[in-house]
From TrEMBL:
Protein name as catalogued: Glycerate kinase
Keywords on record: Kinase, Transferase
Pfam families tied to this protein: Gly_kinase
SUPFAM superfamilies in alphabetical order: Glycerate kinase I (SSF110738)
Molecular function per GO: kinase activity
UniProt KW Cell wall biogenesis/degradation keyword: no
Length: 404
């Protein structure tokens, strides 16, 4: 039997490379003679650079950038000739901050702008950024700030609006940035310089923004935003309402936070906020679109660079997987992308997941024949205690049904 193993990461437990190894191990217990092709996948989120560095001929540059809450964070640029690949989650990912430390309304994408600047300084003319898995929701304002965009504020102090010296309408909200002469919470006046790197909360009291310095900094650079989702930035299908909960934004806070992003978009460019992918990575997609980026599907890009289509046509069965196979897996995510490639090649696609939270009709409409859950096979405790072993157990069971 010939199989292709093309999983996503199992978030919080296994990288895509590790998941592929566990599936292969389990499958071989039942079918030792199998011809196995392996293609770990990513959709733009965490794992993007790991997966691409295995197939793109380039060198890795190490840089240090500001993490979502200002802590120095290591990141890697994959430079192939004049093309640089960046994984934005390395600078603003949800996984970078412990759950109890998360302050999603303050988290900033400033470090992503630093990554871009480093790529430009290294000679990149085309920058391909993977978007997804972020812990930020700042409309990409931090990214724009790191590249030189500036802002002023209104006379009315909105709660949480940080000025350049750290003074804020509500010092508690902007405490991560408060360290300057304004830390006593002194009221700021209309026209004062405001900061764009204080997260979503910092957008509240902005009076005007000037993106031109950022555009000048990256003039002549071609951007490609490879995102995991197509959502717009604002409203019910937008970044805050759909992805806010997983970052720790409480339901009752969402209208206000969405309002801050709306206010920013009204100052910068309201129409762009409605474009496909503007809502990816908490609105980072929006900031990149403002810099002229072309938006593509992250999984399609990874599938193309890893030769997934060709590999699928050489096998009898395609296996994919991820931590939670749920409604979010439908659009733009790894499983949907792999299933589409398998279907185009007329090969069955089977999913192995930590949890399966999707009905069989929905699964089939995505082109997935069957899905097997680790928690059903070994129980939740064991699945988390030994994710590699548990995934191998499930892969062995899948082989029992599917190997011939
Ligand atoms: O980072 C996020 O907000 C989600 O993965 C959607 O892009």
């Amino acid at each position: 039997m010939r199989i292709l193993i093309a999983p996503d990461k199992f978030a919080g437990t296994l990288t895509a490379v590790e998941a592929a190894a566990a599936i292969e191990e389990g499958w071989r217990r039942r079918d030792p003679e199998a011809e196995v092709l392996v293609a770990p996948m990513a959709d733009g989120g965490p794992g993007f650079i790991d997966v691409l560095s295995a197939v793109v001929d380039g060198k890795l540059l190490s840089v240090t950038v500001r993490g979502p809450l200002g802590v120095d964070t290591p990141a890697t640029i994959l430079l192939a000739g004049e093309t640089a690949y960046l994984e934005t989650a390395q600078a603003c990912g949800l996984h970078l901050v412990e759950p109890k430390e998360r302050r999603p309304e303050e988290a900033s994408t400033y470090g992503v702008g630093q990554l871009i600047a480093a790529a430009v300084d290294a000679g990149a003319k085309r920058i391909i950024l993977g978007l997804g898995g972020s812990g930020t929701n700042d409309a990409g304002a931090g990214l724009l700030a790191a590249l030189g965009a500036t802002a002023t504020r209104t006379g009315t102090a909105h709660p949480g609006a940080a000025t350049a010296d750290g003074a804020t309408g509500d010092p508690a909200i902007a405490r991560a940035e408060v360290d300057g002469p304004g830390a006593d919470g002194a009221a700021a006046g209309e026209g004062d310089v405001a900061r764009l790197d204080g997260g979503a909360a910092g957008l509240a009291g902005l009076g005007a923004v000037d993106l031109q310095p950022a555009r000048d900094r990256v003039a002549g650079i071609e951007f490609v935003a490879a995102s995991d989702v197509e959502n717009p930035m604002l409203g019910l299908r937008g970044a805050t309402n759909v992805f806010g909960s997983q970052k720790g934004i409480a339901d009752e806070r969402k209208p206000e936070v969405d309002g801050w992003l709306t206010h920013f978009a009204e100052l910068a460019d309201r129409k762009t906020a409605d474009k496909k992918g503007a809502g990816a990575a908490g609105g980072l997609g929006y900031a990149l679109l403002l810099l002229g980026a072309e938006r593509v599907s992250g999984i399609d890009l990874v599938a193309e660079l890893t030769g997934l289509k060709q590999k699928a046509s050489q096998v009898d069965l395609v296996l994919s997987g991820e931590g939670a196979f749920d409604f979010q897996s439908r659009d733009g995510k790894v499983i949907a992308g792999v299933a589409k490639v398998a279907n185009d090649a007329m090969r069955p696609c089977v999913v192995l997941a930590g949890k399966v939270l999707i009905g069989s009709r929905e699964m089939r409409s995505m082109g997935v024949e069957s899905a097997y859950a680790l928690v059903d096979a070994v129980g939740e405790e064991q699945a988390f205690a030994d994710p590699h072993g548990s995934l191998a157990v499930v892969a062995e069971r899948v082989a029992k049904t599917w190997a011939r």
